[in-house]
Design brief:
The complex is a heterodimer of chains A (153) and B (116).
Chain A (H helix, E strand, L loop, with lengths): L8 E3 L2 E9 L8 H12 L4 H22 L1 E8 L3 E8 L7 H4 L9 H4 L8 H8 L2 E7 L3 E9 L4
Antiparallel strand pairs in A: 1-2, 2-3, 3-4, 4-6, 5-6
Chain B lengths: L2 H8 L2 E4 L11 E3 L3 H7 L5 E4 L4 H9 L4 E4 L7 H10 L2 E4 L4 H10 L9
Parallel strand pairs in B: 2-3, 3-4, 4-5
Antiparallel strand pairs in B: 1-5
Classes of the chains: A alpha+beta (153), B alpha/beta (116).
């Protein structure tokens, strides 16, 4: 199970939500995204913005469970943007350009049988973000940072 | 189209969200690949799928979908039903195959809607 956040930390105009994404259990993948979706709805964000954040983060959660035995997710909510930082201590990505290609995947067959691993995760995360960066070091891990602006569709 | 019309058209069983069957849905999509649903779906309210696991419900929830139809007679587990119930998503199961189920709903006026 994901650790649901305690009270969100308010730091000036930023609300920080933190989650531990459990890598042992594919069933629980997505719980953090569901919680972010609920929090953003309560804060009154536009439905399209909420959906973009939820999808980008959900694909990221699935990736961390498939490839990295889980990791940490931090969501910083500002009035004008939502920043998602997903950080894992997995094997790292050898060729980021290749990983970004639609259809390229290293996911095992058991994950494909579950409806994922089609090589759409990273492209989807980029598609739904306004800013998208990956930092990856082989053998150390990967950090993905996505920003979604709240004032555009 | 109301969800209860889908139930009639597909001779479907309801496994969660009985209280939602009078809600209106305006478009649908059919896929077994959840990443494709996440990539291409915009405002489709109904997901037809042959895939049976909790991530199907999660995917529908991310996309703000209201109804999942499992094709080829697949029956959702208790865990899947509970997740759908807590997410406000109706779960149906039909014995029809994907192609026939989609065709019947399309012919009755439930179209594909927009894509992103």
């Amino acid at each position: 199970m994901n650790n649901m956040p305690d009270a969100p930390e308010k730091n000036g105009e930023c609300i920080e939500l933190k989650y531990l994404v459990n890598g042992d259990n594919f069933t629980s993948a997505g719980e953090a995204s569901v919680d972010v979706k609920r929090a953003l709805r309560e804060l009154g964000f536009d439905a399209t913005v909420i959906r973009r954040v939820a999808i980008a983060m959900y694909e990221g959660e699935i990736n961390m469970v498939i490839h990295a035995e889980g990791g940490d997710a931090t969501v910083n909510v500002y009035p004008d943007k939502i920043e998602i930082i997903l950080s894992d201590k997995g094997p790292g990505i050898a060729d980021i350009d290749l990983a970004m290609q639609e259809g390229y995947s290293t996911a095992p067959d058991n994950i494909r049988a579950l409806g994922f691993g089609a090589g759409m995760g990273l492209p989807n995360m980029k598609r739904y973000s306004d800013e998208f960066n990956i930092d990856s070091v082989i053998g150390e891990g990967t950090t993905v940072r996505m920003v979604i602006y709240t004032d555009k569709d | 189209m109301k969800i209860k019309e889908i139930i009639d058209l597909l001779d479907a069983e309801v496994y969660a969200g009985e209280e939602l069957i009078d809600s209106e849905v305006h478009s649908a999509c059919g896929s077994d690949m959840m990443s494709d649903v996440l990539a291409y779906v915009k405002d489709q309210a109904v997901l037809l799928t042959g895939l049976l696991n909790t991530q199907v419900v999660r995917t529908a929830e991310m996309m703000d979908m209201h109804c999942i139809v499992f094709v080829r007679g697949k029956v959702p587990t208790e865990e899947i039903r509970a997740l759908a119930a807590s997410s406000g998503i109706a779960l149906l199961s039909t014995k029809e195959r994907m192609y026939v189920a989609c065709g019947r709903l399309y012919a009755a006026g439930l179209r594909g809607g927009d894509t992103l």
